[in-house]
Design brief:
This protein is mainly β and 383 residues long. It is built from 3 helices and 25 strands. The strands form 6 sheets. Strands 2, 3, 5, 8, 10, 11 and 14 form a 7-stranded antiparallel sheet that branches. The two termini are 20 Å apart.
Length: 383
């Protein structure tokens, strides 16, 4: 991508810096580090806050809230999955707004059984339409979590948990450990729980303030390299003054010699296509991408076409194509870096937000459209 379709003019020499990086929702340039770090959003993270709201005879009731403080990366359907390991022999008596995927062995209990007895529970959000008596604020969105920049109103997810066989004071409670977050696939690394100053809550009339008995935070950061070592999108280039199209490189997103392997491709003329795309699986199972057989074998292709090139400005049309048979990219984001993006003068068909991780090097473009079809975007950029 370092050499754009060249033209011997000073204008196009500026454009030769095209696409320092173009990143689609679940993809970014390949990183060479295994640390959880996003170069385009270096301070972005998902923070989980556990507020112990009250004590019970054998434990506590807490409200867990997950905040997506990432600038452009959200958690799409089928949503987040949260896991941890109890420090002692705690059990979950009940939950509101979420549930564990397994109950575990509760055979030692008689009468009322706990919701979960596993040492390492796995929690998922409830689905929209859940009865109101099983909901709390910011729950029940199927685990979908938008980014803070894209939509702050839907960038938080909460659930209530009643924990038993635990401490009943600030000194006897032990925080959980070994937190994991799937969003919905791998890529997130969570740090240890840290006890912080108890959260304060202001009543609706703003005349009274209460606070949690105890609060601890967990911070999770994302790395595309941990999520997938190969890119998940590619870029093709063209211009109005040249018939040549610079396509995506061969095997840009990795090649599979064995079509039964994860990431194998599928010919669109395959008989019984629907049964191959959605085979019978256990509920909650995340299927690997199944892409259309192309030269690049990428789930997403971004095509950058220069439509006009004048002394004062140039106009670009972007076309994004979904080759992934198993996923509609709803609430998608695209991130692009280019020196001239500081001078955008007109935008069509989508929302635009500037990102400034390093003194304004990148720009973010967001849309809430489904990307299961061909979508065209337009820019007019002043030079």
């Amino acid at each position: 991508m370092e050499s754009f379709i060249s033209r011997s003019t000073s204008i196009v020499s500026k454009m030769s810096f095209l696409a320092v990086g173009i990143v689609f929702l679940i993809s970014s340039s390949s990183f060479t580090s295994t640390e959880a770090y996003d170069a385009l959003d270096p301070e972005g993270n998902i923070t989980m806050k556990w507020d112990v709201m009250s004590w019970t005879p054998d434990g506590y009731v807490a409200v867990v809230t997950m905040f997506n403080f990432q600038k452009y990366r959200h958690i799409p359907s089928p949503g987040w999955t949260l896991g941890w390991k109890w420090a002692k022999k705690e059990v979950i008596w009940s939950m509101v707004g979420a549930q564990t995927t397994e109950q575990g062995d509760c055979s030692k209990y008689k009468g009322n059984l706990p919701h979960c007895c596993k040492k390492d529970p796995t929690v998922v959000d409830l689905l929209p339409g859940t009865p109101y008596n099983q909901q709390i604020a910011n729950c029940c969105k199927g685990g979908v979590l938008n980014s803070w920049v894209q939509d702050p109103g839907t960038a938080a997810s909460s659930f209530q948990i009643s924990v038993g066989a635990a401490g009943t004071t600030n000194k006897t409670v032990r925080v959980p450990r070994n937190f994991t977050l799937m969003g919905p696939g791998p890529g997130y690394t969570c740090g240890p729980a840290k006890i912080v100053r108890p959260t304060q809550f202001v009543t609706p009339d703003t005349r009274r303030t209460t606070q949690a008995m105890m609060t601890w935070n967990i911070t999770c950061t994302y790395s595309q390299f941990l999520a997938q070592r190969t890119p998940t999108c590619c870029v093709s280039l063209s211009s109005f003054y040249n018939e040549t199209i610079v396509g995506c490189p061969t095997c840009a997103c990795g090649c599979q010699n064995n079509k039964t392997e994860s990431g194998a491709c599928l010919d669109p003329d395959t008989p019984h296509l629907a049964s191959v795309v959605s085979p019978p699986t256990k509920k909650g199972t995340i299927l690997p991408p199944l892409v259309q057989c192309t030269r690049h074998l990428c789930p997403i292709r971004v095509h950058w076409h220069v439509k006009q090139n004048y002394k004062e400005y140039w106009r670009v049309k972007i076309t994004i194509t979904n080759f992934n048979y198993r996923l509609n990219y709803s609430q998608w984001n695209m991130v692009a870096q280019h020196p001239n993006l500081d001078n955008i003068t007109q935008i069509f068909s989508f929302n635009y937000k500037s990102l400034s991780p390093y003194a304004g090097l990148s720009k973010t473009h967001t849309s809430t459209l489904f990307l299961s079809y061909l979508l065209s975007l337009w820019w007019i950029i002043k030079i």
